[in-house]
């Protein structure tokens, strides 16, 4: 009986819609009128046949790869920088985490301004990065080659703080004696970090990678507000693709197909990842 | 080179380097926010040409305009209403459910618990198309109540995960004592468990507040009438209206982010313990 409120809410608004999405994905439907155009798996065939969808997966993949190889190491580095034994670290931690609580809508407006090519702020970026041989000055959000990078920069600005505080919490769980012992044994700082600290952080790192991958797959707000997936699909991701087809062109059947694929990707990834890297945690869930 | 220096000197030097590094990162984080804050006081032309300087003259027009904008206050109230509703509904139903999962024994309990945990794996987005249809059928499209119901439902998984763990750590003896004194399970839940769980509840509530306050996608789909717009939706609309007037936009986002920033400075401890607690234990 105590379960009733939660169960009603959860089954009505979470479980039921998921099942419904799977059902709708087999129909061609514009959201109005009777649901009678059963087309079997043709939505899925169309989806996998769509060249844009291939790009979409590529873009999501790119965000995931960049996040794991660049954003998370930065977060770890900063956690090490301000995590321990630095007087005043609380102030830095507060500042670093600040973007995480600012809404995506505000973040998008702010960065649209900074990336806007008409303004001096973006000249500044050109100036800073101009020394790179492969860097091409000019608009960011309007350039198909640079738009994903721009989005990644904003994602990093906004979300690295989450990973940083996870690492800080993880670091606090490592007794400093262990690291000191390795130093006494003659390891230098880098060796201590690589052979002692990082292995001991592995659980936190697995969690952080997990959240980062799911977050990358699920990102919608920032991309939609800054580029709407453009220019010419250059920043289209799974969620914006779904929104465009499901709601902008009101093909609810096709949109549901994208949703089902999105759900399956999240589910399969979660199950495989958790049983491979987070075995204990998952067992903890089921105990 | 560093190795040749004497030990205390080396220590001081690394400390200084760490401060320099941390300060540079802090500036990258704060920089865009300062550009926005000072930008709100500038003429648009000045903001475009010299975004990094202090305003030549502090113009109040833009901030004044936003602060006297009826729709802005309406959106603030709507967002606050949705946030409070979501926190109350989700906390209440999640704690009752967590109590069952942590304390009671019945067949199928663990299966049911795992079903609730499915919610951790996907966002509202995945279910949004059928949700839209469902809400249309239930007649809660274009209403703040509808948003509260859905947001609460999607908060449950995480809350139950955290609260169940916390409830389990409360000694069994306290429960037995309640029953000996003639209390019901609800007495125990309400008089003993809930007061003892205040830190976990606060962490959960803080997370739910951030989640609800920043939620854009759901209101974007569900709300049609501007009178119901929440703040993120209002921000998006304002962005569309004033694309040419950047200083006004900057003033808007600075004021719009203030409640969240103030809340963060007050509740940082709870937000962070919610995030790390959930992730580390999860």
SSE layout and pairings?
The complex is a heterodimer of chains A (287) and B (282).
Chain A: H1 4-24, H2 42-49, H3 51-83, H4 89-101, H5 104-115, H6 120-129, H7 147-172, H8 176-184, H9 189-200, H10 202-218, H11 221-227, H12 238-248, H13 252-277, H14 279-286
Chain B: H1 7-39, H2 44-49, H3 61-67, H4 70-103, H5 109-117, H6 124-138, H7 144-168, H8 172-180, H9 185-196, H10 198-214, H11 217-222, H12 231-241, H13 246-281
Helix pairs in contact in B: 1-13, 3-13, 4-7, 4-10, 7-10, 7-13, 8-9, 10-13, 12-13
The helix/strand class of chain B is mainly alpha
Order of helices and strands of chain B: HHHHHHHHHHHHH
Beta-strand segment tally of chain B:
0
Ends apart, CA distance between termini of chain B? 44 Å
Shape of chain B: globular
Structural class of chain A: mainly alpha
| Major β-sheet profile of chain A | none
| Annotation field: number of helices of chain A | 14
Which consecutive residue ranges of chain A, at least 5 long each, have pLDDT under 50?
281-287
